[in-house]
Amino acid sequence: MLTIDNLTNEIDGKAILKGLSLSIKAGEIHAIMGPNGAGKSTLAYTLGGRPGYQVTGGTASFNGVNLFSLDPHERAAAGLFLGFQYPVEIPGVSNLQFLRESLNSQRKARGEEPLSGGEFIKLAKEKAALLGLDMEMLKRPVNVGFSGGEKKRAEMVQMGILDPKLAILDETDSGLDIDALKIVGAGINAIMRRPDKAVLLITHYQRLLDYVKPDYVHVLAGGRIVKSGGPELALELEREGYAEVVAA
Fold first, then answer.
1. pLDDT (tens digit, 9 = 90+) per residue, 72-90?
2. Which residues form the ABC transporter domain (predicted)?
3. Closest alpha carbon to 149 in 180, 117, 193, 122
């Protein structure tokens, strides 16, 4: 589904990713862990197409298509979803309005018919229920006045409605208490743990991986993946930290 080969990039002339390679197949969940400044969020933003993240070498193929040949909205319509560490607020725009416009814009780009108002509300109720989010909250402006946990749950509702093929989740566990972490973890599993979908989880801590079991765990340091393994690698990192792995 996603194949990254020797990817390099820079921000404001500073090299961040320095030859990163990674392959994710449909049906797999991969977790990327690593110290601060390793390039984890940079990888997510580069794949998502955020301006300012300049690719200087290497390739990334998404379902056989050159990812970097697509604009950000084209990547989204192709089935890529990027979850942010700090979801933004959009005053004056309700969640329901934002989500319906987003979904129908993607459907139009794929040559599909838009959902009617009734069809969309039914879908939104279903996905909100997965995340324990009251429909009244979806009537409020996007993320305005939401707690950190509510923002992440609302973002997972967005993911459920857009139904992507690949979800790149950048520190989705950030700011979540234990109860919210369980709900968000269950939501990710319900929406994305399917044979035709894949997930790239970016996290500092092992705790999210108690609820969303990865198939593979990778350590990113100095702009490269320096070690890969199974779920046990995350437990090792939680016990021993990154110093020994990074120095190896």
1. 999 999 999 999 877 888 9
2. 2-247
3. 180
